[in-house]
Amino acid sequence: MTLRMNLLALGLAALVSGCAVGPDYQRPATDLPAAYDMPASKPAEAGVSALNPQWWKLFHDPVLDDIVAKALVNNSDLQLAVARVEEADALLRQAGSTLFPEIDVLGNDSRSRLSTTTVVPGANPLVREDMKMTVGTSFELDLWGRLRRGRESARADELASRYGRDTVRLTVAGLVSQGYIAVRALDAQVAASRSTLESREKAFSIARTRLAAGLASELDLRQAESALAAAKSQTADLVQQRALAEHQLALLVGDMALKLPAGDLGKLPLPPVPPAGLPSSLLEARPDVRQAEEKLAAANARIGMAKAALFPTISLTGNLGGESAQLAGLFGGASKIWTAGFGLSLPIFTAGRLSAQVDQATAQQKQALAGYQKAVQSAFKDVKDALVSLTQTGEKDEALGAQVQAAKKSLSLAQARYEAGYSPFLEVLDAQRTANDATQSALRNRQARLSASVDLFKALGGGWKETP
User: Residue 25 carries which DSSP code?
Assistant: First the structure.
């Protein structure tokens, strides 16, 4: 009994001391610039915070707000990610329970008859009743931290699943916003194409009238007819693209009956630009980067679990209860029974299996480290790409706007000169094509500029914070 008490005291002392083999996790250093080298369009306003987890509301569009809210509830990918969080949370609670003793109530009732060929009749009853009820416990002393490393790994996996859910949430919000911008851009392109169609219908009517009056050739009429057909084809193609974009958006939102009325792309404002000197430390808020780091922490803890398997495992067991032939005497003093003991397991020869498991866990930790470094570098690249796109589409926006205005003036002049008989119809066709192409290019660039804003929010994990 003294030996058992000494072992118990030794185990409890080791447990309290917090001994755990294996490396403790430390965040690895990343070789990144301190700040992004892209200049902002305007300096940051001191004391103004631009951090907003609901960044899509910066577009000030209630329809967009509504469909993003629906998507964050109904999207099947997000529901899958939420279920994974619930699974990881259950595994964490399961891992934590191993640090505590397991207590069970055990009971049995058996009835048996002895053979008269082996027992003298009358000396012992031939039919025996045996009732037993005990409370038992078993507890592994976590001397080397195997169970604690297991809980540490499970906690990191649980956090990784939560950051994975946040990554899906950010991705879904970004895809819905991009899809909505695409629908609105196609609305604007359809409207512009229909305006072009009206212009070409008017030109066709003028060419037909001039031909009837002998003021134009049939060539003018056929050229006007061809241009009109091209405008009809372009309009039909854009209407088709708009319908397909709406269907894709409905899939993302999780509402296949989704119908969006035509909207105005010009009413979507550009969100505020980031301040100058945006720090690269903002990447730490990106959920995919945090997820990669937690996966690294989990892999790091599993090295300790593998190393702990090389050391002895000591467990304590005990039972307390009663045993009697009758239910009335089951809990009497004379029926009391108990057992106490400990178990020792020490690996002697495993043909290298345990050391191979340590090497395997170490290799997995190296893989997780490479994954974390790649996630950080990819996130940094995403931000730089989004900043470049936002800057360059902004510059193109001004140039394309000027081109559209010039093309419209040229079209108006060409039409007036043709109607007055000063220029051939070919000049009108060329001006029409130039105005149409310029308008469509400007609308596509506006879409790209708004999409670049979404990309920047996604790349930063949802926003940024301006320093005072």
Answer: P
Q: Report strand pairing: 102-113 vs 313-324.
A: unpaired
Domains along the chain? 52-99+143-310+353-459 (1.20.1600.10), 105-141+315-346 (2.20.200.10)
DSSP per residue, 187-250? HHHHHHHHHHHHHHHHHHHHHHHHHHTTSS-HHHHHHHHHHHHHHHHHHHHHHHHHHHHHHHHH
C-alpha triplet 196, 197, 202: angle, nearest 5°: 100
Cα 317 to Cα 360: distance, rounded to the nearest angstrom: 33
Residue 367, CB-side half-sphere exposure with 13 Å CA sphere: 9
Strands (E), 239-380: 313-324, 336-345
The pTM assigned to this predicted structure is: 0.81
Q: Looking at the DSSP assignment, which residues form a beta bridge with residue 323? A: 132
427: part of which helix (H) or strand (E)? helix 425-459
What pLDDT, in 10s, does the model give residues 139-151?
Answer: 888 888 888 999 9
* Residue 433: Cβ-neighbour burial (10 angstroms; 0-12, 13-18, 19+): middle
